[in-house]
Amino acid sequence: MRTKRNNASMLSSESAVSELVGELLILLITVAIFTILIAATYSFFSRPQSHIVSTSVEINDTSVIVMHSGGDSVPLGDIDVMINGAAYNLSRPGSFVSHNDGNVLWDIGEAMVFPFDTGQNLSVFVYDRASRSSLGHFMINNAGV
User: Is 122 helix (H, G, I), strand (E, B) or coil?
Assistant: First the structure.
């Protein structure tokens, strides 16, 4: 016995279409979730941009002067200065900065003045904590001064 198939009934069946749409939606949701997770992971572990700064150091009888000679402005709270192992944090804007224009950035032409015995050899290291990069390292030999 042979049964006849009705092609019209096969075309009107939408069960296969709904399964396909369901699978595509699940695939789309999965891809969207993984895309969001990857974007969040990369933004979480991204490193802040390094500042490009030209610095110079001058000394006088009682202090060490670190000058911003050019380049990017750096937030004062991110700067650490070490002079012969003594650490100075610039989280308070008026603490060591002279020629300050009132903002919380170390800009071109501004100087940081640190009282220090300059009659000895000096090692001055300027560090940007936010980008974990050195802004300058200076060795000053004061023999005979």
Answer: strand
